[in-house]
Every structure is written in structure tokens, then in C-alpha cells.
Amino acid sequence: MPNHMDATSRFRYSWEMLNPLEKKVAVYVLRGLSNQEIAEELQLKTKAVEYHVNFVFKKFNLSSRTKLMAFYYRESGLLIDELTFELSEFHTGEK
What we know:
The protein is mainly α. It has a single domain, classed as Orthogonal Bundle (Arc Repressor Mutant, subunit A). It has 6 helices and no strands. Helix 2 packs across helix 4 (46-60). The radius of gyration is 13 Å and the shape is elongated. The two termini are 26 Å apart. The relative contact order is 0.17. Mean pLDDT is 79; it is low at 88-95.
């Protein structure tokens, strides 16, 4: 990641590294859902969700939900509702 980026650009750069399912998992984590709740929403096994959550942490170089939330609020410049658009894209496949 280029060092000259501002905080919002760094977040967007990292966000674009996520695949659509990882983005969806990240949004649910940011909304405060547990792995079990995310699994129910996505109709996945809890272990699969744990894997995806940990991969999101790895891509952002973070180690917890709290750190992901802090990173998001500090650096994204976005509100959670703006990420809802990402979820609607995932469901419909449209942009």
C-alpha cells in the first residue's frame, strides 16, 4: 500500500482487496453481529464464518473485531449505512 495515501484512501485500498463475501462478512462484523449470527444470515457454517472473519483481519493487518471497528471509524470516512450499498450489490450482482 502506498505510504502517501490519506486515511480514507488507505481504507478504500484495503477494502478493495476483499472479495465480495469477505466484504459482506466485514459489514456484518462492523454492525456487531456474532459469528453465529453471520452464519445464519449467510447460511454458512460458523467455522466458515470464523475463517472469513480472520481473513478480513489479516487483509487489514488487524487482530480483533474491536480493532476492525476502530480502524473503520478512524480511517474510512464512511458511515455503516454507506456500506449497505456493498451488501445490496452482493445480493443482486448489480452496481
